[in-house]
Amino acid sequence: MLHVTELEKTFYPGTPAEKHALGPVTLTLQDGEFVTLIGGNGAGKSTLFNAIAGEFLPDAGFIELDGQDITFLPEHRRAALIGRLFQDPMKGTAPSMTMEENLTLAYLSAGRGGTLRGKAQRRAFFAAQLERLGLGLETRLKTPVGLLSGGQRQALTLLMATIVPPRLLLLDEHTAALDPATAEKVLALTNEIVREHHLTCMMVTHNIDTALRTGTRTLMLEDGRLVLDLAGEARAGMTVETLLAKFRSSLNNDRILLPGSGAV
Amino acid sequence: MSLLVFSGSVEQGLIYGLVALALLVSYRVLDIADLTVDGSFTLGAGASAMLVLAGHPLLGLLVAPLAGALAGVVTALLQTKCKVAPILAGIITMTALYSINLMVMGGRSNLQLLRTETVFTAVRALLGDSVGPLVLLAAVDVVVCTLLGLFLRTRTGLAVRATGDNPAMVRASSINPAVTTLIGLAIANALVGLAGGLIAQYQQFTEVGGGTGTVVLGLASLIIGEVVTGRSSMPRRLAGAIVGAIVYRLILALALSASVTPQNLKLVSAIIVAAAISAPAIKQRVQLAQKKRKAVREHAARH
Lengths: 264, 303
Ligand SMILES: Nc1ncnc2c1ncn2[C@@H]1O[C@H](COP(=O)(O)OP(=O)(O)O)[C@@H](O)[C@H]1O
Ligand SMILES: [Mg+2]
Fold this sequence. Notes:
The complex is a heterodimer of chains A (264) and B (303). Chain A has 264 residues and is an alpha/beta fold. Chain A is built from 9 helices and 10 strands. Chain B has a two-stranded antiparallel ribbon. Classes of the chains: A alpha/beta (264), B mainly alpha (303).
């Protein structure tokens, strides 16, 4: 489980460009909790994820994952525990390497490491996993990833990030750059994988309807602070309209979407 | 071309193929133009020659790649820990190596290995003058290619490959890209050092300026190899580097027989590399110009 305590981050302190981007934020995620995160442009959603993943050190506060204080653990060491997806489908894969090579690297590198040592065994396992995506990728293990479409690459990245289940999965608008149909597919796949591995997961989305429909809890950030924490009945009873009416000003996000407008 | 010239070219191609392999690792895989190469080539040659003179030719071929690897490590640390731009990091190491190479060579600017025992005199005695060196060098290349190919399939090897492709992904694979860069540059310069060590014993001569232009020469070989074997799979690319180096040596031999003087060989190499690397851009410009002319013609025809 994840504990974030009094986490703060200011960019360019002491300069005219000073920007208080995050905090103080205190947050606890239970094991297996699937949380959606919303907020306007620049609310600090990505900054929160970057801090948890260790892209920079926070100015103050602590991060604990699975009982281990990871506040000062280097980014690449945390990566063994944390799987990440970004809006940009190009970010998570090596384009000139084949799908099999990408999957192998992810598989052999994950925290506790994959246990399949034989190449043939692994290939069969990868093919079976790819088949579940329903994108016909299982027959193209030898294809360089650079030749895949954005949606295919994002689905592959999702598979790579979870091929050995991470302790925490951070999804930062990972369907935002995809066309609506592909986005729907990748979101369904996300739900399936998170449920199957009982993953602890945080997902940023700018679609409020998706945020309320997905997972078990919804958080909202405004100016780097948590202003809403919805779960249980309060969340079940919440509608997009009510939420929008209440937070009209803070959801000043021109990409915030209403239900029925298609994109995820 | 006489048989002697031909087999000589193949032998040298097998040696310089190791440099092409090195550039496959640094230039293609890591995406770093590593200029350490000019220095680490001489370093390997100097170390190998000194050990030949001390009566240990085989040891020379072990020390040469180790010395090269060390040079690669220095360049990598400059890049990753001191944030020196990759090209500059290579130039700094290469410059430092000039002095170090003189030290290695006992302060002399060249070393003669005539009438001393080398690995080549040994294989000539064993297998005969004509095939001895060829068999030895082919064996070295096969072993090196195989080991390199196997390494590039391991987790670390895949991470080295991903480093040039997408460093963020390497971090996401819980591997420090600084480490994979270091491993890659160490391997590349070890290969260069080995090539230098072999060439010193092969030519029975080495000089402190002998490595100049090695990087361009290796690039020429690499690019020719890519044209011949393609870039579709790692085994092909590894073999391509060796094949490219052999073809390149044969081209040089032809150029020499067509009365290009030896002094001009590096100019020929430079032209081959410049042409090969700029070919895609030139092709694009030509296509664009054709498209424009066609559009103008069609526009004129409609009016
Ligand atoms: N690396 C950075 N350097 C400087 N400012 C940053 C950096 N990352 C984010 N910010 C700023 O912090 C604020 C929060 O950004 P971000 O977390 O990306 O918002 P969002 O909620 O849209 O993901 C923004 O004002 C942004 O400009
Ligand atoms: Mg963001």
